[in-house]
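Design job #97: recover the sequence.
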């Protein structure tokens, strides 16, 4: 009977232990953020490229050194 109680107590302590839970939660959070970044890049990639291209063209046209955007 004592052995049974020891086993039950050890099992209960193992269930109550949360030391590894935060690492798993951080891993899931990082995976979610990475997935969100991938979706945003694929969804708005062309628009972002256009904005940077327009900005570069404006800077190059206003520069006195004759630089290009390549």
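Job complete. Output follows.
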């Amino acid at each position: 009977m004592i052995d049974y109680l020891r086993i039950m107590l050890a099992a209960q302590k193992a269930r109550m232990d949360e030391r590894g839970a935060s690492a798993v939660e951080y891993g899931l959070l990082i995976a979610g953020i990475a997935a969100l970044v991938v979706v945003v890049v694929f969804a708005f990639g062309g628009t972002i490229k256009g904005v940077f291209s327009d900005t570069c063209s404006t800077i190059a046209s206003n520069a006195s050194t004759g630089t290009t955007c390549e």
